[in-house]
Amino acid sequence: MENMKDLENKALAEIAAATDLKTLDEIRVSIMGKKGALTEAMKTLGSLAPDVRIETAKTLNSVKANVENALSQRKAFLENEALNARLKDETIDVTLPIRPETQGRIHPVSKIYEEVVAIFGEFGFEVAEGPDIEDQFHNFNALNMPLDHPARQMQDTFYISHNKDKPFDMDDAYVVRTHTSGIQIRTMETQKPPIRIIAPGRTYRSDMDATHTPMFHQVEGLVIDKTTTLAHLKGCLYDFVKAFFELDEIPVRYRPSYFPFTEPSAEMDIGCLKTKTELKIGAGNDWLEILGCGMVHPNVLKAGGIDPDVYQGFAFGVGLDRLAMLKYGIPDLRTFFESDVRWLKNYGFAPLDFSSLTGGLSNNGGQTR
Fold it and tell me: Which of the chain's termini has less CB crowding within 10 Å, N or C?
């Protein structure tokens, strides 16, 4: 018994003196390993008399439990010490400035989105949102687009079957929205006039070249009340392009056009100067088409649950990617979606460069390209 007590005291003293996990494990093996002192003592139990064996076994089990407990506590302490030492050695001073070459940049499309929202926010417009996957009523039918309209053909529109148990039926399929006009219909269904919203978001069409991509960004505007006229539309868009391009004056003109959801319809051009090396907005004898607009068609008002004999209004739509190309001199639309860090470093914006009409939309006005 005395030998077992000495063994326990010696083991506990060695465990308490261990300064690292490796030394602690060596002590564990020397006591409780296959050839450890405690293990060897337990092997002698079979040769003892029955009454002595019982007492000796109790003593050995008590020693084993005390040693295991001491090992566990010391291991937890040493692991905590090792972790604290590692954290101290690997400390990073997060107050140091980051290296310029690793600083993130805001994508031009995100910047244009902020600028457009800032401008129309000052005009009193609210931002409305809707689903990317639309039913054909909100994407086509409610917008006065008949079944034989070219935009509804499969080579122009992405269709999605929503019933896996039936063969694909284009007339019954959902679409990945081709414009954000469906948000206008949803707004009319849920909100009583007067309505003044813009609807920015991603849109999708089957097209791909230097000025078109399968996914692009668009913002549409809608105003509905009892007194809005075409003059209000022209004034609103004129103020918008002046604020967006950060010019005091800018020549504009409106050319008659056709859109099934507006009547009359027009395309808005802005004055510019085109040369082989630059495009200068707001000066010169050239014109550049920038957006489509018009007075909301009575059939569209009816589809949205609004009486066209009482209410009227205007709508417009413009591509955010196209605005970014014009303002910041980006020649190819496809580069917007190539995830090239070098491109983003050149055309991107500082994260804290907020857009507002009072503080400035951008660091560079964007007149010369």
Answer: N
